[in-house]
Amino acid sequence: MGTVSNPVKSPSGIMTETVPDLYTGEPPIQSAHNTWKAVDEDLARALGRNVHRAWTGQLFIQTADAHTVTLSAPSSFVASKINSHYIDTIRRLWEKHDRVDPPRNVRVVSGPSKASRRSAAADSTRPSLVGVPGSRSSSSPRPSLQTPVSELARKRFTLENFVIGASNELAVAVARQIIGNRVPQYNPIVLHGANGIGKTHILHAIEAEITERDADRRVKFVSAEDFVAQFVASVRGSGRDGMSAFKAGLRDVDLLIIDDVHFIADKSASQEELLHTIISLVGAGRQILIASDRHPDTIEKASDRLKSYMSSGLVCKIGAADYELRLRILDRLITRRREQGHAGLAIPQPARDHLAARMNVTPRDLEGAFNQIVAQSEFLGTPITLETVQETLSDSRYMTGQRLTVDRIQRSVCEAFSISLTDMSSKRRARAVARPRQVAMYLSKKLTKRSLPDIGRRFGGRDHTTVMHAVKRITQLRGDDATFDAQIRAVEDGLKS
Ligand SMILES: Nc1ncnc2c1ncn2[C@@H]1O[C@H](COP(=O)(O)OP(=O)(O)OP(=O)(O)O)[C@@H](O)[C@H]1O
Question: 480 and 431 in one domain?
Answer without folding.
Answer: yes
